[in-house]
Amino acid sequence: MNIRSRFTVISILIAIALSLVWPNLGQRTVRVYLQPRLTPVQITKSMGNIVDYLKEHYAGVHKFSIAQTSKEDYKLKVEQDYRLKLQKLDPKRFDKEEIEEAIIVLRKERDEALKEFKAEKYVAIKGNFIQTAFLNELSRLKNVDPQRVEVEKMWVEDNINAKPFNLGLDLQGGMNLVLKGDFEKLMKLLNNQYPKSLIDKLKKKAKEEKTKDKRDEAQNELDRVLDILTLDEKKKKDYMIQAKEIIRSRVDKTGVSEPLLRIQDNDKIEISLPGVANPEGAKKLVKRTASVNYHLAEKPSDTSYSAKANVDFNKFLRLTSEKQKELFIENLIKKINLPDSFIITTYWDKRKNDISNKLYPVSFMVLEAKPALTGKDISPNTYANFDQENNQHIVSFQLTSEGTKKFADVTSKNKGRRLAIVIDDKVRSAPNINEPIVSGRAQISGGFTGQEAKDLALIIKEGSLPVPLEIVSESSIGPSLGKESIDKGVKAIMYGLLVVLVFMVLYYHLAGFISIIALFVNILFMAALLALMNFTITLPGLAGIVLTIGMAVDANVIIYERIREELARGKSMKLATTQGFERATLTILDSNLTTLVAAVILSQFGVGPIKGFAVTLFIGIVTSLFTSLYITKTIFGLLSFKLNMKFVPMGFGRYNKHRKANA
Length: 663
Prior knowledge:
56% of the residues lie in helices and 17% in strands. It is of the alpha+beta class.
């Protein structure tokens, strides 16, 4: 390949690299919208508060102003919302008729929205290197709609998949959680739901029913139950994948931008939430199983099992550990001789005049083990509401077509019995069934606070977690510490770069300047590859970049010393350049190969910070090899062969005595 072709390739690669990193270099625009239904006075005041906050904390860093949407922006937003809602109509969860009905409703909503255009005010923020933590910080400001803190995409993002850098929590602050699936608890719940007596009953039906259709129906139900009660590694992995997607959906709804979720060892989920300021709220939201089931209570009787169980309730309250409580319940079941088809649960309520809104166990309650209605029977049309008549927060929901039939059947056949609403294994409400409910609409009341009702409605919409989760590891890093880490990391890179540049120019003169050009191109290529991979940069990753800067010029030093040796033997600049690169190439490859192998091993078997360091080190070695053996060689070829320079200044040394002879 001739010199011109080489420069063409280099120019194309530099242009592509610049495009990939442009979202981090160019100016971006953030739009901050307010919550709906604010009065004009509230809008004006809230906008002013946001601008004041930005002036106080980000003056000189970002530019900000108050603007309003155009008709084109509004149309684009309505269409985007419509497409997002269509994507949530999961055919696995809803039947064809329900989906078609929902599409008609969504189209009508879209058409109505397009007719009702109103210019909406927002705060426009323009700046460089806008990170997730900053967006999450904006979403928490008073009266800001967390779902509408929007970053305008650049052309390169839409057309060539360019992305801003992802920074780890150690650089921008936030929290990290590792949740483990409690499959032992899951099996206990399933065994309660499908007791041995039910399995024996189905086996008997499958053998003794008179007609083949009835026997087949019983056998199919038996196979389904046995499949549910069988837990292998594949099913565990499937449960964790489902849990991860549900948690992702929950977190997205809270307005947290760019959460990172990944599965570890088939039974753990790692969650990184950048810029999160309320760790306790985040933990509650992501780990809550929040299964919402309706169970029929036992039939009213003077000698009910609930009455027998509650004789020992005060003893139960004195227990402290969960293990002790589980053992107590097991012994109590034997003591009162409770059939397998029933379970003992606890009724929870709030104490009067307790401002903490904390729930306390009030009594035992015996329920049918098999739920009459589950969360799968509830449609996504669920929302938190306030019941003016009873002065309490409630969750209103609509049942699926199948759920409506089941609920109508249960409420028709069990008039006078109580129907317990069980949330996370706690009975929160147990109203009497006074009349059949056939409308498919119902509500959950349980002394909720406004936030509890919102969280429960959100979780019902997304579905309950398929397996209970326990936190096994958690860590939080404040935004100020993250900013300090970024500042120190950038300073380390700049100082390291400056020292290398000064040394190379002083020691190798013009050749040193050529190595500086190659070094900047190397850093650009590294940044482009990291952006293309959507890699999360951490503090150890920055250490890998600093190390790469030193290693990148190491290859140039080897090349220059070989060229100087050839010049010292009296060879011309052209011949010395050719032979210097030939002899240096194998040495450079050998010296970098062992480091590459170590980086590969660390990236495969390392986790967290180690993996981040290994990946940046690996990419740095690859790009430094390319820049030193291709770009530096191309520049030397241009000077020696195209421009016919008789001598390229390469610093001090004995080779200089041949300079006049070769000039």
